Amino acid sequence: MALKLSYFDIRGLAEPVRLLLVDKQVAFEDHRIARDQWAEIKPKMIFGQVPCLLSGDEELVQSGAILRHLGRVHGLNGNNETETTFIDMFYEGIRDLHNKYAQMIYGNYENGKDAYIKDTLPGELARLEKLFRTYKNGEHYVAGDKESYADYVLFEELDIHLILSPTALDATPVLKKFHERFAERPNIKAYLNKRAAINPPVNGNGKQ
Ligand SMILES: N[C@@H](CCC(=O)N[C@@H](CS)C(=O)NCC(=O)O)C(=O)O
Predict the structure, then answer these.
(1) What is the pLDDT of residues 178-193, one digit of tens each?
(2) How crowded is residue 47: how many other Cβ atoms within 10 Å of its Cβ?
(3) Is 16 in the pocket of ligand 1 (CB under 6 A)?
């Protein structure tokens, strides 16, 4: 089934999807929408927004739905109901952190960045680290021995926070190790090297 992922030329909400597809060696067209094309494309999108994954002639939107779909199709969704629910719960927790990050990035970067790093982030990461240790003390993936869609989201979330603050993970060694391990996965490593040469913005307003 031909896949086409449409999004802006930034990392944003599409990057975990790209990471998952690259890691699983699923071929896809990485369609990057230029800002001046958006006015024409927006009305064609189900919710007027992207990312959008075109799978054959099926149009999938909402980043969480896209990730869960790929999770089911590629066996990245846990081995049983308990694991699947845990993975969903973990994903939603990351989304909550990402919403706080996005509020700061888009709404209050100049005045809010330092306070976000100092007052908001440590508690958020500590909670995620505690949850991450649920399975096998966090030595592998979100749900234990096998990767899930939430691992790609977690990796990207940690990665963008390291851009924001290079010491962000110093107080959460288990998450820090996960980030280091995940970056060494051969397909991810090759993608990260390729991406570094282009260095696309993380966010739509160029702040990161
Ligand atoms: N809940 C949606 C949010 C999608 C969203 O906010 N997309 C933004 C880019 S990150 C967008 O399309 N912005 C352009 C617009 O709204 O016109 C999801 O998770 O996919």
Answers:
(1) 999 999 999 999 999 9
(2) 9
(3) no
